[in-house]
Amino acid sequence: MRCDAAWLLLSRQAARVAVSELKVLLVDTEPERARILEAHLASAGATVTVRLRPGEQLPEAVAREAPDVIIVDMARPDRDWLDDIRRATHRDPRPVAMFVDVDDPAFMEAAIEAGVSSYTVVGTAMPDVKPVMRAAVAIFRRYRQVELELQRAESSLRERLLLDRAKSFLMKHRRMTEPEAHRWLRRQAMERSRRVADIAAELLRDAGEEEARKNA
Amino acid sequence: MPDQTAGGAVTMRLGLLRLTDAAPVALAATSGLFSEEGVTVALSVEPSWANVADKLAFGLLDGAVMLPPLALAMELGLRPAAARILVPMSLSLNGNSVVLKEELAAHVLQGGARPPALEAGRRLARLLRGERRRPRLAVVHAFSTHDLLLRYWLAASGIDPDEAIEMTVVPPADMPEALAAGRIDGFCAGAPWGAVAARNAAGRAVVLSSGIWRNHPEKCLAVRADWAERHPCALRAVLRALLRAGPACDDPARSASLAALLAEPGWVGVPADLVAASLTGGAGGDVDRSLFAAHAAAFPWRSHARWFAEQMARWRSLPAEAASRAERAYRPDLYAEAARDLGLPVPGADRKTEGGHDAPWSLTTDSAPLSMLPDVFCDGARFGS
């Protein structure tokens, strides 16, 4: 029994050490999406997330941070630099290889469709990497859904009126600029997994109730 | 499963990058050639070669305008996302430039006209002997025509690309800015990015890729093997449309309108005159010109596949039998079917001696002989003879 307990404790420690050592370089053209993913990974407590510095190139960031995992927005053209195992190895003794879940093509397809790709250091335990990648795919996918909803809302008159009213409310009462209001609505929709139009309706309803209370 | 639909109801999802040599695909799409041939093609303009390869590997694309070495790397399993790929046609010859930053270019060009490639390389080699720092040269992808041609030229000039050069990868559209900012000392990229760098006065072209290998293959059509097996009629229709688009892309009278089409923001999105410089008949521009159809330019020579595989093996480890597997991925038989549908001549052989022709020559076909262009290398080497 004692043996088992000690083993359990040790393996937990080992797991914690291994997990806490996982350093994720997050390279995303959408700062807001990156913030949400970073917050999500931090709350899971499993990783340290680092980002590119302003104006920094991808190779410099990889050399500086020596990350275990690199999560890359597929919209970035500099992803091609990561696409070469041999040269990355030559530059940096830590080998970088593309993380492809060969045993799970459906997951890879979902990742590509969501627009996210990842690279990992050879030898990084896959169980540690998997949850990070799953979180990234989920957040990228949700982001894309919200973008599509926003586009659809723009083209549907009723929803556009709702969005416009919600935005002007935010601009007037919360002193946001138009892009800030747009981002606020999008972020709420992403974080709460709700439709943008529903967020706008809810905002206006709450505001209306507050107004009614004040007037009462 | 045989293709029941004769292509009509089948859509090919075709990936491409913002480059001048996407011209045949752009023209076939915008002038309705695909639909005339009875096939629907959904184009997907991608930001990186890695995206094209991943989407092709996981079935989100059926085909792509591709770098032949990348298509072969996928087929040979050199890249983690491996996939069975076949190459039923080439799409262009020539079209790349080696651009060096101004201080290196000035030394290589010595105030005169551009010297032959080997002489330019030897001048660079002499200059580098006195340098402490290895120059950093960028190519567009690790598995690219650019990488293999640049390495071939450097090695032929007495410069070991693995020792004397720091090779890196930069997206083609970012090359001019990376050169101007001093992050790289030179690059090899396709049109129009060499011309853009020259216009920004960041550097000058010291060698054109046709000076390294005259009329070298550049882009190809890469297709998922399983898609090709499921939809043979649709594939044949796609090939016919591209074979019909090619001659228009070679036509000097159409270079202005073609450049205007490609210059649109959805395509290459740079000034039309810079795009035109790399098309036949386009004025100005110190860059290499692409060839799309004439002189059997679109024929997928198995000797091209072998050369690519042998050069890839020269610089990295490759599985045994890579060259013969690469040759098998090239499918001149599929080209022949589509060409015969259109009454176009089909070369009588699948291979030629690369580097064996230093002057125009005549090729035996199934109909009238075809006039061919030289295919010499800068160092006079011959392959496959």
Provide structural commentary:
The complex is a heterodimer of chains A (216) and B (385). Chain A is elongated. Chain A is built from 10 helices and 5 strands, in the order αβαβαβααβαβαααα. Mean pLDDT of chain A is 79; it is low at 1-19. Chain A folds into 2 domains: 5-127, 3-Layer(aba) Sandwich (Rossmann fold); 152-215, Orthogonal Bundle (Arc Repressor Mutant, subunit A), CATH 1.10.10.10. Chain A has 216 residues and is of the alpha/beta class. Chain B is α/β, with parallel strands linked by helices and 385 residues long. Helices cover 39% and strands 15% of the residues of chain B. Chain B has 17 helices and 12 strands. In chain B, the strands form 3 sheets. Chain B has a 5-stranded mixed sheet, sandwiched between helices. In chain B, α7 links the parallel β6 (136-139) and β7 (166-169). In chain B, α1 (23-30) packs across α12, α5 crosses α6 and α15 packs antiparallel against α16 (322-329). Chain B is globular, with a radius of gyration of 20 Å. The model of chain B is unreliable at 1-7 (pLDDT under 50). At the A-B interface, α4 and α6 of A face α3 and β7 of B.
What is the terminal separation of chain A in angstroms? 68 Å
| Radius of gyration of chain A, whole Å | 22 Å
CATH topology of the largest domain in chain A: Rossmann fold
Oligomer: heterodimer
Shape summary of chain A: elongated
Instruction: Specify the CATH class of the largest domain in chain A.
Output: Alpha Beta
Query: What is the helical fraction of chain B, as a range of percent?
Result: 25-40%
CA radius of gyration of chain B is: 20 Å
Q: What proportion of the residues of chain A is helical, as a percent range? A: 55-70%
The string of secondary-structure elements of chain B, in order, is EHHEHEHEEHHEHEHEHEHEHHHHHHHEE
Our count of domains of chain A comes out at: 2
The stretches of 5 or more residues of chain A where confidence is low (pLDDT under 50) are 1-19
Principal-axis shape of chain B equals: globular
| Total number of helices of chain A | 10
> Number of DSSP strands of chain B?
12
SS content category of chain B = alpha/beta
